[in-house]
Amino acid sequence: MAARSPNAWVQRTSSFIDLSIGVLAAPRTTFRALAAESSNDWSHIGMAGTVVVIAAALDGLRFAAESGRAAALAANVVLSIYMGLVLWLSIVSIPALLARFFALPRARVHAFAATSGWSFLPWLLMPALSLWESVLGTTAVLLFAVTLFVWIVYLFWIAVEESFSVSGKQTLCLLLILPQLAILVVFVWVWQIVNEVMSLLGA
Predict the structure, then answer these.
(1) Within this chain, do residues 124 and 29 fall inside the same structural domain, yes or no?
(2) Contact (Cβ atoms closer than 8 angstroms) between residue 33 and residue 65
């Protein structure tokens, strides 16, 4: 029997639950398939946005529960969702701008929008840590929180590799080196403009 391609797997298991299991159990295969499907299918990007919204909303509920103020519940949830979406779009925008600069196909940016959104999936487990703090202790909860953060970063790493078809070294350059260089160039450019303006005002 011929082996199923990753694309066929995503088409066959395109429900939210099945994709969630795929991201957690086989992230590279799932992201490779999502990257291929999301290039011309916005539904996966929509589901990725749903992951971000649900994770952020649960985090807002956690903050409201910890503060003990029921009146601030709606405000916390709305603010958390807003911050989560801003964070996701900001992360997507960096490779998107670089892809535009290097004239990469727009389909790869669409693919990264989907895979990066699904990379937030472990964030759904963060509110549960608060419930276990009284049992496990603060140190254990902090350790689990760091583990979840590392897990999310690992998923983002795979998302970049599979969406843009790059190697590990290229991913490191794309995520860490190039953005820092861009910030440095902008800072130097702004500094020069300020100096020029100050010199003109001084003259």
Answers:
(1) yes
(2) no
Q: Which domain holds residue 177?
A: 168-203
Cα dihedral 119, 125, 127, 133 in deg (nearest 10) = -130
List of residues 6+ apart from 9 with CB closer than 8 A? 22, 29, 33
Confidence of residue 105 (pLDDT cuts 50, 70, 90): confident
Whether residue 33 is found in the same domain as residue 107: yes
DSSP for residue 72? G
Q: Where are the alpha helices (DSSP H) in the chain?
A: 6-12, 16-25, 27-38, 43-67, 73-101, 106-118, 126-136, 138-164, 168-172, 178-202
pLDDT 10s digits, 154-181 = 898 888 888 877 666 666 666 665 555 5
pTM score, whole prediction: 0.72
Torsion of CA 51, 53, 55, 58, to 10 degrees: -140
Q: Which two tokens stand for residue 116?
A: 């990066």
Q: Using DSSP, state whether 203 is helix, strand or coil.
A: coil
- 118-152 tens-digit pLDDT: 999 998 888 777 777 666 777 777 888 888 888 98
For residue 67, the one-letter residue type is S
- Classify residue 1: in a domain, yes or no: no
82, 76 contact by CB (below 8 A) = no
Locate 80 and state its tokens.
Answer: 């958390």
Q: CB within 8 A of 24, min separation 6: which ones?
A: 121, 122
Q: Which two tokens stand for residue 40?
A: 């011309």
**Domain match, 138 and 193 both:** no
